[in-house]
Amino acid sequence: MLPETRPSGAGKVVVDDVSIRFEGTLAVDHLSLTVGRSEFVSIVGPSGCGKSTLFNAISGLVRPTGGRVLLDGRDVTGETGHVGYMLQKDLLIPWRTVVGNIVLGAALTRGTNRQDREEAVRLATRYGLGDFLDHYPHALSGGMRQRVALMRTLALHADVLLLDEPFGALDSQTRLDMQLWLLSIFQDLNVTILFVTHDVDEAIFLADRVVVMSPRPGRIIADLPIALPRPRDIDLLTAPAFTQLKRETLRLLHGTVEPAA
Amino acid sequence: MSSRLPSPLRTALLRLGLAAVAVALIFGVWNLVIVAFGLKSYALPTPQSAVAADVDHWHDLAPLTLQTVEETAYGFLIGAAIGFLLGVVMSTSRTVQRLIYPTLITSQAVPIVAIAAPLAILFGFGMLPKLVIVAWVVFFPVVVNVLDGLAHIDPDLINLSRAMGARRGRGFLVIRLPATLSPLFSGLKIGATYAVTGAVIGEWMASAQQGLGTYLQTANASLDTRGVFGATILLTLIGVVSFLLVVAVEAVATPWRSRSTARPRLRSRLALTAGGSRWTRNPGRYARSTHD
Amino acid sequence: MVAFRYWQTTRRVALATACVGALVAAFAVWAATSSASTSAAKPTTLRVIFDWPGIDFEAVPITAGTAEGFYKKAGLDVQIVIPPTTSTTVKMLAVGKGDIGFDTTTDVVFAQAAGIDVKSIANYSQSNNWGLVAAPGKKIDLKHLKGKSVGIFTDSWTKAMMPYVLRAGHVSSGDVSQPIFSSNDIAPMLAGKIDYATNTVNYAIAEVQSATGKRPTVLLATKFGAPNVPIWVYTATSSWLAKHGPEAKAFLAATKKAFAWSIAHPVAAVKDYVAAYPKIGGGENYSLAGWRATIPALGKPGSLLVQRKAEWTQVAQALKSVKLLSKPLPASSYFTNAYVGG
Q1: Is the pLDDT reported for residue C304 higher than 90?
Q2: Which CATH number fits domain B45-256: 3.40.50.720, 1.10.3720.10, 1.10.357.10, 1.10.580.10?
Q3: Which chain A positions have a beta carbon within 8 Å of B286's beta carbon?
């Protein structure tokens, strides 16, 4: 059956038996998932398996047709503003500078103040964009824009981050840089991260657990613990333990191995 | 370095030079056509004679030009404001859009010359009918462009702002309103070019004040073809200058379209110290608290 | 970077110039072929170009001439050509789109000043019937002109006459509001939007009578000092006259007969006119009122169509004094009585 973690209410993020029906089709089917505090969970699955729809439900953009979403034990189903959400598109606002984009969360809610901007400057400077504070997005490279987008997400000070294929549009070199950067951020802060990706290497490299989803309607078919040491470094990518995990994940993904009961 | 001028100045001079060349070419072809076809001056005067006529009569033409410019400018501002407001209002609801849009399109399909006469009867012969006509000409491209701009905001961006917990009013101010700026200026550029024609038509119908439009008619009536073309050149200039003014305002209002970095502000709001301090996480102040 | 954009801009400039050049060339071709197609007017057909983009009761003598056979007896087939806009009659004559023109005296003066050799060959009217018009029953009070509004047009006749109005009222141009109209100042006057309208009296009477059934109050400009110069004339280019002298004479002789007949039989003449232009032209009531109001301006039966030298010197002077004309020419440049008479 489904090797799921029973919703115990004790996790940081609890997806409790969520189903989402979308324009007539069932996108997500009775999915349950518990993510612990400061855990990094990668979610992999074939295209159209409902990963993004699941994120939309967790972030409150979409109300699930069944089930509920709990944050720190509290029911936040259908409520926005509790998590940080980042997409593959950087969605940077063209008429705002780097700093202006980073403070977007504040701008959209209570209004920015001096402290927000100073913090944004510190954030940007710390992570290598100190010379580009007043630049407009069109003057930045793709990688830089995604970095700004991630900083925008971090500036929300949310405990939980939903990252939906944030590095998918970048070239592999930049992608690796960004992964290492994300790992260092994860190290610095006590955030809980849910990370959707198509890239199995990336999923394993970053996460504490890899959740494998089935094709539509989306269900969890496997939940793989990743017992690799932190902090992660590049050598791990070619280590035997990594390859073993990758083999297992790929088999689960492509259906050549039945999930363990 | 070398004795070259700074780059923006060079670009501006280059553009100016090319514009002068373009005008010279047009004048040249104009003269060529006159010579080639043996056209008499009452049919098609030379551009030089038309310009000379303007220079000769500048004393009389100056106040007329000012009058027409005033009609154009005020009418343009009114039309732009109405167009912008209408566009924003219509973007809020599909029903409102479906109600108003057909009326707007019909208003533009009606030939201005047809409505100008009843307008003179309704509003008299002062500034008002001309302002109405100019605004009529200007507002439509503005509405269409503003509406399009608002409709084409990336829906993912809207979703993102919702996911961030954006309040409705703030979302409008931070995302939707600034998104109208670029398309607004596209509409304004079109409106600016045609606005002066609206002013002339307004003057033609009935006018207590004298402007370039009435001068055109008088010159035509006295077979003063040089005067007619001279006035036409002036009107064309007004249209071109209007367009360029909008372009200039656009560059100031939408700096991200032409610059890589924002203009430095007069008072420095940012403490641009590259800190050695670790960025520490503050507890969320605005993310709705998930703690007890 | 700059070099690349410069090259793109140059191409755009070249394309724009080519388009403008093509447009100007197309216009020029049109103008040139128009003049080239000046066919030698057929011996029997005469095209008379009207002065206004529309037809009205001033065409009554010519339509009567056709309907009653005066032109046919002279071996002529007279056709009226309606111009596309105002102030184009002279130009159309010059490029050969017509043979005879029906035009204003001032247009002849301007044509000569612009180097177009158009001459007046006969008077249509013999007096200046331009003046101020007020609503029926209302008085025209020149003593209290200050602060009033007088509707004017952009034509040169109005411009030449207005100084006389101002002088008669002892006011300057700034004391009187002069809203400019393009086609009709009678309707606004009747609607009370302006105090007085300016117009030729025959049109004013026709308009007001057909609209209200009453006669308007009229004050002729000649009553307060304006020169008694006729407004309308028949014209032709000197080059056409040189080739078609006999036709011109025949036309004017037949036209004189048509004038006399139309004056003596106004109702029948207007019926002929309305039959020729049933849809446009104003209708029977309007046209009859207008033709009847035109008759007084046509002069005494014995002096129909004949011109006086003094008219032409006067009109040139009047235009010069309002700065519309820099160099008045001798009267003989403007008119000739050689084709009228008999």
Answers
A1: no
A2: 1.10.3720.10
A3: 105-106, 109-110, 157
